[in-house]
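Minutes, structural biology subgroup

Action item carried over from last meeting: produce the structure token record for ROK-family transcriptional regulator (Mesorhizobium ventifaucium). EB confirmed the sequence was re-checked against the source entry. Recorded below for completeness.
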Amino acid sequence: MTRLALAFDLGGTELRGALVESGGRVVTQVSAPTMAIAGSDAVIGQIIALAGDLLAQRPQADVVGIGIGAPGPLDPKAGIVIAPPTLAGWHDVPLIDILGKHFGLPVRLENDANAAALGEWRFGAGKDTGSLVFVTVSTGIGGGVVADGHLYHGRRGLAAEIGHMTITGEGDRCFCGAVGCFEAVASGTALGRRATALTAPGDGSLLRRLSANGAVSARHVVEAARAGDISALELIEAEAKWLGIGFTNLLHLYSPDLIVMGGGLANGFDLLAPTIRATVEQRAMPAYRDVPIVPAQLGDRAGLVGAASLILWEGEPGAPLAMAQDKDSKDGPTERAAGREASHR
Ligand SMILES: [Zn+2]
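Output recorded by EB:
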């Protein structure tokens, strides 16, 4: 029987759960709006309820453990969610202990961006690489680093908080309190803010027409740029320059085989890519300039399948070795191909 993991992606707005095979295929999936202001007991109750739903759908499933991606800061080794800004009332919650006792199964915990990095590395855009940096650009900027075949954790598992690396001395204050964070100038939120400042309600611009004269979002900017709107194209160019500067830092710091860009703004990756690339060419030292920068492949499934792999691929490095050792490899390439196809949806 195929080994499965229960996987959860705990977000500030949505809690998603799935049963996942070791090849990355999602067998069945459920979700619920996170009771983010109700405290940790309520949300843990939701996790237990969703697990019950999933197991009821597959009563014969051979579930070998539970993998969870949750918002940082958290300590993956101790299994403790420290104090995520998006979840009220969570302070040093021993999530692994609580769920382990409830289910009698091994539980593994990882920062949500790290879980997504693992997903893209093992099943998505980063398959067959030894080192990659995954960058998610949406409301904020997060990331995960795979270095030499392992997720890079650092002290207390807090490494690769790349949204808060300082890349300028100017601009709006970041929610972390500092000025000039990568996230503060290059997130989707920052792009929307620049677009809103550039236009005015009722000015007839395409950006304001798309936003129904409300605040302009990054999604509106991408949509207007696709329609050839000059202001939107200029905003995209400025955004791509900031991303290029941040990515150049990541190339110099981690020397990955690949940078994978995910998050909501990856929907505009094709528009952003030429200026990101030009900025890297201009700023990176020659030895780093040929590193591919590619869009993520798994969308919002990356975190779920990455969390599942914490259990199903425990102790295994990247794809090639794991494929050779994986118990399910006897199922052959057909199952793996099906898994890839499913996870690309
Ligand atoms: Zn910051």
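Discussion: The first strand starts at residue 3 and ends at 10.
Next step: EB to file the record with the rest of the batch.
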